[in-house]
Structures are given as structure tokens and as C-alpha cells.
Amino acid sequence: HVVGVAVDSQDRIFAYNRSDHPMIVLNKDGEILDTWGEDVFKRAHHVEVGPDDSIWTTDNTDHTVRKWTTDGKELMVIGTPDKPAPAQSGEPFNQPTDVAFGLDGSIYIADGYGNSRIHHFTPQGKLIRSWGERGTAPGQFMIPHGVAVDPTGLVYVCDRENSRIQIFTPDGQYVTHWKGVHRPNQIVPGKDGSMYVTELGYKTGMAAGSGEPNVATHNSGLKIMTKTGQWLGGWGASTHTHGDLIAAHAVGIDSENSLYVGETLEGARLQKFVRI
After folding, report:
1. From edge to edge, which strands make up the β-sheet containing 32-36?
2. Which residues contact 246 (CB under 8 A, 6 or more apart)?
3. Which of 91, 115, 212, 246 has CB atoms 3.0–4.6 Å from 111's, for a disulfide?
């Protein structure tokens, strides 16, 4: 289950997965450079690269976010290992899911499965503010699963079970939201100005927010969108054929704009897509 993918400034790919070797570092040809994180993580979720090329991981059943060097030396832990905040209390953390970085180096964390909250921290890990609550109105969330910051500083949240992407100012004020996505897992700003969204998709007959959150379906895939939420393209098909996507969970982008897509559930693989 390749649940997280991130690419650093040297085009090393960090494949965060639920195996005996939870962090696998590869080059662009798929050759393994390093592995680390053994006996550390309880349930890997997402991985991101920080402004200083540090590696940040979310562990949703350990209820922590950790900062690492690229070779796996731990630098910081945010949250108390194995001690969640009460569910839906709004306090960090109860099953955090993703992390992103503001233009000032501050940290945004999606607190994801057990809370309905975005937390904003200083680069040193001190809480600045939090926003969000469970619900369907603007500014509310039903599993804030992914978070990203664009080059202008706007904060994008994959509000998965509401099947939308919500956009906020850096201090958490609601701006707008996009529909037309199917249970989005992660959103990543591309170097070409596009936004790349991984989708879990719907089970046939399932409505957003109706439960059964861990089901991969016929319309799982990757969607490419403009910064105003317009659809540009995408693919999926939910088969094991090379190039199709089952339960697309994460995407990383290298310096050549190649895409590395991690799949979970029935997919459980990492695929590379190159520009042609």
C-alpha cells in the first residue's frame, strides 16, 4: 500500500508505504537508494517534503506528525505518540492525515479521520490556530484528508467525504470550494501551474458522506485541474492494467513534471507517468 509519495529537490522519490520497510527512497529509474523507518510507524499515511528538503510523515494511528532528514534521522515530533485527542474535540491530533507548508515555513496539518480540523503551527511546532468542524457547510469537513499550499499562499483542503476541495486564506478564512471531484485524497500544485488531485471514487450507489470510506471503485483516479477548479484531464479505470489506477492515494512530481502515483487498497503499487 503506497499511501504517500513525495519528491525532493534532488529528484529522489520517497514512497511511504505500509510494509516492513515503510520509507523506500528511489531514483527516477525506480532503483532503490535507501530504506528507513522500520519499527517506527504504526500506520503510514502521507509524506511531504519541507522547505528545507526535510521529510514529513503523518502516522494516523500513532496520532503524530514527524520531521526527518532524508536518510531517516528524526528531527521533530508534533503530537504525543499513541495518545490521541478525544474524537471530534478539535484538539490535535486524532488520526492526522497530511501536512503542507506555508510561504513563511509554517505548517498546516489535516486532522483528518478522527477530527474535522486543520491545524496551523509555527515551523518549530507551536500551535498558532485551528479551524473546521464536522459538517457539510462551507468551512466544515467530512474527513479533511489532504492539504496543500499554492504559490500564493492559499490553503487547499481535500474534504473527502463531501467530495469537494475547499480553499482558505493562510489564516483559515474560507474563500471558495470546488466540486466535480470524487472523494479526493490529495491535491498537489504542479510546477506547470496545474493542480493534481488523487481520487478514491465512489462505490456504485454510494453518496458522499454515506459511509464505507475504504472502498476503491470504478471512478478512482487522477484529475488535473486549473487553479480555478476547471477540469483539464485525468485518468483512472480501476484495473490492475499498467497505467490504470486503483485507489489513487498520493502523487509526487519531479523536476521534469513526471508524476509518481501511489495506490492503496487493491492497487498497492507505485506508478510513474512521463510527459509526452
Report:
1. 2-7, 13-17, 23-26, 32-36
2. 216, 220, 238, 239, 240, 263, 265, 266, 267
3. 115
Residue that has been written with the C-alpha cell 507551536 in this structure: 126
What the block records as the C-alpha cell of 213 is 470510506
Which domain, by its residues, includes 214?
A: 75-273
User: Are 66 and 24 contacting, i.e. CB atoms less than 8 angstroms apart?
Assistant: no
Q: What is the pLDDT of residue 204?
A: 44
* Per-residue pLDDT reduced to its tens digit, 26-80: 999 999 999 999 999 999 999 999 999 999 999 999 999 999 999 999 999 999 9
Residues 11 and 46 in one domain: yes
Catalogue the E-assigned strands of 50-206: 55-59, 64-68, 74-78, 96-101, 107-111, 117-121, 127-131, 144-149, 155-159, 164-168, 174-178, 184-189, 195-199
Phi and psi at 161, nearest 5°, equal: -80, -5
The answer to whether residues 3 and 16 touch, using CB atoms and an 8 Å cutoff, is: yes
Question: What is the CATH classification number for the domain harbouring 256?
Answer: 2.120.10.30
pTM for the model:
0.93
CA proximity to 5, closest of 265, 275, 263: 263
Non-local (6+) Cβ contacts of 138 within 8 A are 166, 174, 177
